[in-house]
Structure formats: structure tokens, C-alpha cells
From TrEMBL:
Its EC number is 1.1.1.3. Catalyzes the conversion of L-aspartate-beta-semialdehyde (L-Asa) to L-homoserine (L-Hse), the third step in the biosynthesis of amino acids that derive from aspartate (the aspartate family of amino acids), including methioinine and threonine, the latter of which is a precursor to isoleucine; production of homoserine leads to a branch-point in the pathway as it can either be O-phosphorylated for processing to threonine, or O-acylated for processing to methionine. One of its GO terms (molecular function) is NADP binding. This is Homoserine dehydrogenase.
Length: 354
């Protein structure tokens, strides 16, 4: 163990934080201690420890008190999509515990929570890093923060922000060649590949994209009150909209989705009749404070139409860069690339904490 060990409290062992994927796997850094894992960073041990799984987990307040009692600086790593845990970040931060997370909920909920998270971090001299909340491990937030911190003016952000929706449309309606794939079958595939949110309806209803745009807009200086404060186009069939948000609701949704394949086929065919492809995109216009999320047609030779797999493409238009945007492109979903974003953030926090 290093001279100044840093203590990690890790919550959530799922697709991103898998037992087979050690935290900081290939990193030359060592000397971290998983707060109740032995050996350090062993997810399998952690997930089998009753106090670390969901049913036996300590309430957030107790977890924060426990971590604050560590004989060194501590970091909460939240690998869940739990809004309640996210709402307790201020409790951790005020106690000096830094937060590293791919969980979008806390940063895209009420603006008051966003403000409280960052004021609590300042109060507790703690750090908050959440790179994987947009574009998974792609350097999206770090790029935007660097542009803003160096005095550039961001005027517009646009692109494809969902790995799941990118994969769905790239597979279902490719720009070159043709596909006979049914929409529901591709949704199942995206879920199996670990691209979707724990509840895939959060991808299909546009809320995942809306949350990402809310985070980007706030970092660009816009005070977006909530992710549902602007229009969002949903791809959930109306007949399935009222299924419960439970595990049973997810399973009913997946079972019944094939009944509605013709609806998505019609959307694909309508674009095809104009010689185009349909894609799910988002944009933020900073001057007019307009945020848009939904379907749009694209020429088949455009960059967005030509994306592959789960790729995101995010263009930052700024005063400094003029008409040619800064573009970040690459896989925007999947356990491994998301875990990389979490590990990158951990390394940054470990370097900056003293
Ligand atoms: N997968 C991806 O490509 C990306 C994911 N993310 C984000 O990463 C996070 C994790 O995603 P992913 O790993 O795919 O999701 P999973 O559903 O695979 O994993 C989340 C895990 O957290 C557990 N969990 C939920 N709430 C709690 C809690 N309060 N206490 C303890 N454990 C809890 C879940 O248990 P249970 O199953 O019992 O509910 C589950 O095992 C999400 O916030 C997601 O939005 C971000 C970018 C990309
Ligand atoms: N479900 C999300 C995962 C990453 O944020 C997506 O598909 O983009
Ligand atoms: Na990112």
C-alpha cells in the first residue's frame, strides 16, 4: 500500500463494474483500497458481501459517515443509476468525500441539486468527476470544460448522444447496404450488449439523451431547470407507455415490443423514400437557449448517417474554433468503455486530492 492510501466506497456492481473487470485494471497506479473489499478492487468479493449489495447496503448517510472515518481521503464510486443515491452526493461531499460516477441522474435532475452538488464539493474541499455521464469514456465533458475554462464561448453543441440509439439506427437503417432486422430484435441485441440503461425504455423514450444534453447545457452555462423542460421525441409505442417501471414492467415491455415493429419500419421507409436515413439526434443552441431531442433525416453520405456500432459523434461549435467544430467521436456505450471513463476520473481525483 502507498504512503497515502485513498479509500474507495463502491456502490453498484453491474455491467459497468463487473466482477471480471477490476477497477483501474491496466493502470500503473496501485495502493488503493476498496473500502470493504479484500483483496482491494475485487468486485466479486464486493458483490457477494451482504453489506455491499443492494438489499444489505448501508443507508447513504451511514455510508458517508463510515467513509469519512477512513484514515485518509475517500471517494464514493457510484456505479448505479439510482436517483436516491445521487441525491445524497451533497452529504458525501460536505464530509470531504469526493464523487466519481457514470450515473447521470444527479447531474441532470433539478437544477437545485446540480447547484447543491457543486457548492457542497466546494464546502468539503472534495472533487466531483462524472465523465462517463455523457459519451461513456469519450472525453466529452473534459473537452467542454477545457473550452469553457480557457475562455472560449460555446455557441452550439450537436450530434448523436446515445450509444443505444446509434446502434439501433445504424443496424436497423444502415446508410449503405440494406437490413431486414426487426426493430425489437435490435433492441434486444443492444440490451444484451450492455448498451442500454438498466431500463431500456429510458433510452427509447429519449430521456437518456435529454439528461446528457441537460448536463452539457449546464456546463456550457445554461440554467436548464430539468431534463423534461424541453420537448423530447419518444420511440415508445403509446400502447406500452403505461407499463410499470419495475423489473416486471421491463420484461413485459420487451415481450410486447415485437407487436409494434411495423411502426418503426414505417419511420425507416419514410426516410428511405426521400433517399435519406433517419437518426436520433440532439442539439443545444446556446444563444437562443434551445435544446432539441428527436428524430431527423440525414443524407446517406453525411457523418451522422455513416456512424458505426454504438458510436457517438459530438460537435462543439465555439467562437475560437469558428465554422469548424471540435468533434469527439467513438463508442458511446458499453461496459468496458464506460468503466474506462470511471477509471480516468478516479486517476484524476487521486492525483488532485491531497
Ligand atoms: N452501460 C453503459 O454503456 C453506460 C452506463 N452508464 C451508467 O453507468 C451506470 C451503471 O450502468 P450499468 O452497469 O450498465 O447498469 P447495471 O444495471 O448493469 O448495473 C447497476 C448495478 O447497480 C445496482 N444498484 C442499483 N441501485 C443500487 C443501490 N442503491 N445500492 C447498491 N446497488 C445498486 C444494480 O442492482 P439491481 O440490478 O439489483 O438493480 C446493478 O447491479 C448507470 O448509471 C448508467 O446510466 C453510463 C454510460 C454508459
Ligand atoms: N444507455 C446509454 C449508455 C451510456 O450513457 C447509451 O446508450 O448511450
Ligand atoms: Na464521456
Amino acid at each position: 500500500m502507498s504512503a497515502n492510501p485513498i479509500y474507495l466506497g463502491v456502490v453498484g456492481v453491474g455491467g459497468v463494474a463487473r466482477p471480471s473487470r477490476p477497477l483501474l485494471a491496466d493502470s500503473p497506479r496501485s495502493g488503493t483500497g476498496l473500502f470493504a473489499g479484500d483483496p482491494p478492487g475485487d468486485w466479486a468479493t464486493a458483490s457477494a458481501t451482504p453489506s455491499l449489495n443492494k438489499t444489505g447496503a448501508l443507508p447513504a448517510e451511514e455510508m458517508a459517515t463510515y467513509l469519512a472515518s477512513a484514515p485518509g481521503r475517500a471517494i464514493l464510486v457510484d456505479n448505479t443509476s439510482d436517483i436516491n443515491l445521487a441525491r445524497s452526493y451533497p452529504t458525501f461531499l460536505k464530509k470531504g468525500i469526493s464523487v466519481v460516477t457514470p450515473n447521470k441522474k444527479g447531474f441532470s435532475d433539478d437544477l437545485s441539486l446540480w447547484k447543491e452538488i457543486f457548492s457542497s464539493a466546494a464546502q468539503g474541499k472534495a472533487l466531483v468527476y462524472h465523465e462517463s455521464t455523457v459519451g461513456a469514456g469519450l472525453p466529452v465533458l473534459s473537452t467542454l470544460k477545457d473550452l469553457v475554462a480557457t475562455g472560449d464561448k460555446v455557441t452550439r453543441i450537436e450530434g448523436v448522444f446515445s450509444g443505444t440509439l446509434s446502434f439501433l439506427f445504424n443496424t436497423f437503417a444502415p446508410a449503405s447496404g440494406s437490413s431486414n432486422a426487426q426493430w425489437s430484435a435490435v433492441v434486444t441485441q443492444a440490451k444484451e450488449l450492455g448498451y442500454t440503461e438498466p431500463d431500456p425504455r429510458d433510452d427509447l423514450n429519449g430521456m437518456d439523451v435529454a439528461r446528457k444534453l441537460t448536463i452539457l447545457a449546464r456546463l456550457a452555462g445554461l440554467e436548464v431547470s430539468r431534463p423534461d423542460s424541453f420537448p423530447i421525441e419518444s420511440l415508445i409505442p403509446a400502447e406500452l407507455a403505461s407499463l410499470p417501471s419495475s423489473a416486471d414492467g421491463i420484461s413485459q415491455f420487451m415481450t410486447r415490443l415485437p407487436e409494434f415493429d411495423a411502426q418503426m419500419a414505417n419511420i425507416k421507409d419514410a426516410a428511405e423514400k426521400e433517399g435519406k436515413v433517419v437518426r436520433y439526434v440532439g442539439s443545444i443552441d446556446v444563444a437562443s437557449k434551445a435544446v432539441k431531442v428527436g428524430l431527423q433525416y440525414f443524407d446517406k453520405d453525411s457523418a451522422i448517417a455513416g456512424l458505426k456500432g454504438s458510436d457517438n459523434i459530438i460537435s462543439f461549435y465555439t467562437k475560437r474554433y469558428g465554422a469548424n467544430p471540435v468533434i469527439v467521436q467513438g463508442a458511446g456505450a458499453g461496459g468496458e468503455v464506460t468503466a474506462m471513463g470511471v477509471s480516468t476520473d478516479l486517476l484524476k481525483v487521486m492525483e488532485r486530492l491531497h
